[in-house]
Amino acid sequence: MKNLIFILLLIFCSTFLFSQTTIPGGNVSGIWLQSGSPYLIEGQITIPDGQTLTIDPGCLIEFQVHYKFKVQGRLLAIGTEQDSIIFTVADTTGFSNFDIPDGSWHGIRFENTPTTNDSSKIVYCHLEYGKAIGNTTDDKNGGAIFIDGFPKVLISNCTVVNNKCKRDGGGIYCSDAAQIKHSIIQNNCAYEYGGGICFGYPNPGIYNSIVCNNKAETGGGGGIEVYGGCDPQIINTIISNNTSYLEGGGIRTMASSGTKIINSLICNNDNHGIYAYECSPIVTNTDIVNNIGYGHLFGEDPWPLNSNEIPRDTEIKKDFLNRENRVVFTNSILWGNTQGENWIGNTYNLENVDPMFVDPSSGCGIEFNGLAADWSLMIESMLINYGTEDTTGLNLPEYDLAENPRIFQGEVARVDIGAYEFQEDPLRPYFDINTEQILFGYWQIDEEIDEQMFIIYNRGSINLEISSITAPDGFQIRKPGEDWTSQITDLVVQPDCFQFIYVLFHPEELGEYDDYITFVTNDVINDLQIHVDGVAVESLMRVSENIYEDTTWDTDYVIIENNISVSSNTLLTILPYTKVIQDFNLSISGDLNAIGTATDSIYFTSSPYRKRRNLKLGIYGGGNSHLEYCILENSSTHGIVGANTSEYNYHIENCLFRNNYGAGANLGSGNSNISNCIFRDNHSGGFIGRGIISKCILFNNSGGYAIKQYFTTLDIYNSLIFNNSEGVYVAVGDYINNNTIINNQSTGLVVYCTFDGIFITNNIIYDNGTPEDETQIFIHPNPYHYSFIRNNVISGGIENIVIDGNESTVIITEIIDMNPEFVDIQSNNYRLLETSPCIDAGNSSNIPEEFLISDLDGNVRIWDGDGNGVAVIDIGCYEFGAPVSTSTDDYLINHVPKYELHNNFPNPFNPSTTISFSNSEKSKVLLNVYNIKGQKVKTLVKDTFESGTHSVIWEGSDDSGKSVCSGIYFYQLMIDNKPITAKKCLLIK
Questions:
Q1: Average pLDDT, the chain
Q2: Alpha-carbon distance 165 to 188, whole Å?
Q3: Residues in a beta bridge with 954
């Protein structure tokens, strides 16, 4: 690239010592020797199919008027660096007029050249004054070179200068997989699209080339136009000082999903450096600088957004025009472009960090020569050695744009950001710290709290200057030997040195303190912070030794500081409102009596923001353990683990099992009586065990069945099971009655009748599975005992009941294949509408009486729902229209929590808008605003809210109070540190 401009822009002029050669129209082949030059073309010439024309270095091919050079065979026009081949016209008068053929020739044309021919090569050639004009569309494309339907063309070390076309591709039109290498495409003009080059077919490429000073007169793609599913590679190429009437002065990509721009420079173009529409360009180690463009101009929904996703930094940027696409930037620089924000992007992304170019162009657009600038990095640049550490899959070339090694093997062998690799070790500070978080845990407000420490390193080559280190409320910091303070200022760390800083949790009020220690340094790249967390409580108990006698825990917090065992024949009692913080195992060989209340639950949980979850609660002995109104969460295994023996009994009522890495509960072979419990968001299923499950809700459990049981009896009544990765698996059981099993990602109910038959009665089993497998019930019957599937609502009816075995022992009756008609599936309200076919459609025979008292809501279980004077049980877990049972005083009326983020109003807005959200239970709420690059702009809400609807006003400012610019923003709702949903708003000033 260093000598490319000088060498290829030479127009070789020779004094011909031999006679000229006149070539009349017709077929040509053989060899055109330099001794016969110049060759005067006096008609349309064609290389026939199967024949070859070789043109010697130093030849001048001069077309007398507007004739085509058609290639149906093979062209070998191979010059040398000293003797190029020139294609031109005898008289250029009238060349500037698009509408007439005067002053031009009609270019080299590969028009459906048979692919049986070997490759054609155009090497060290100078092509000028070609003009594509004519009666057909193809005749109007490709001023100097037209390629359509022939993939074997090499264009190398050529200058394509001063050519025109009436439509697309002023210099070159390529609708096939041609390769352009080490060439200059300059001063060409297309009346419509692709002033320099137009690509329109998969897999072309341009390498180590310059595309400059081209123009699209009435269309887009001043330098390069890419369309029609074309996936070009643009590597080590400069696209500079091009312009267009429409979008994409540098390059425009249209419906091209795989355009790759690697190690290139796009500078000083008018009307955007890059324009992308309905495609996904990949831009790697590329400088997009000093272009004139619109910046914030996007179409509707430029990428998919779901409740868990805020668009990340590397997807959409502001210094190019982008509609309905997803652009991925890596190790690239967007800088100095008009009407856009400066951005430098790699894995980490930098905002408003001066790249420190050696000698950039002095302004934006074609009035300033981008080719004459020096876009390499200064030794102080923060971009040196700051690219992606692992370059696997980036397809980086061996050399950068200046033909230097792409990764300099210095003290740190890491790729730089941008198109140019600095060839020395940089001079800059490198700020690093030894930890990302410091967790103090739980402390009484009046306790003496242990201090902790972090280390600051300067791994750079000049001093690290730290203007300030600031501790948030509730924390203090100090240097060794100094007093505690909230801020340390003016600290200097020399190269290859470090500094100790001590941290103290110093709360003044009760509550959780969760924030960050922040730093202001002269290392603008490594913007680090330390997460600090501590909880101040009124009373706590620390437990670190095994328990050998009956014990009661009656305090706000119990901190488990070691693996603890409760010995056999020992009772551990936990009173209401106690929170057991267990970052270690709690193993109970005796009995556990943990009975909270509806207003004061007992928690088994972990310290906040632990990198590891709390370890398991295991109950392995005793005769009877009882848990009521407990919340078991954040376990590294199951929420609770039981013994694999039927000698133990577990009574668990009104409990919540959530966010455990294993199942919510795995109680082995113990006799479990589980009622009025919720199992949600566990990572290896909901419940594993034997016994009875009644009036439970199981949802959003992944990695396993919502309920699973092996070789021991498990009965399931009056439960709601939805949105799990798998439904219910039962190997031995008597009854599965009055459940609603819906929208699980695999078969709703799997039954293996190992020892006996089973009654499957009054269930709604609906919309489970996938489009490929819509099985709702899979049953492996017992060959000697009958099983009954009766009075169920099954989506797809009997066809979606699969019997794996002796069908004669499975009695199927009263199957309803109709929509159950729920109140509101979207809000997870699976109660019945009055038009539901489930009302009064059940069968109460062979169901134990204790499970016919009330439904999941605690309402009377058998009720005259349709008003005909006959009380018949409904199908599903809810009874329609029934009054509350008189025996439900002790029931926890289970609610699936509901959260909603409402649309902001007004939208678009200026200067402020109101954002509202609803929560159905007391929750920790975080509401943040993000910009189009995924960067947090402002925290609107960070607090605990009681149930209800709440509103906040965003006044279009960031966290510092500074007004933000017009554009698209996203606001995201998080509940209890989990993302719920996000919505989009538009600020227009």
A1: 86
A2: 9
A3: 913
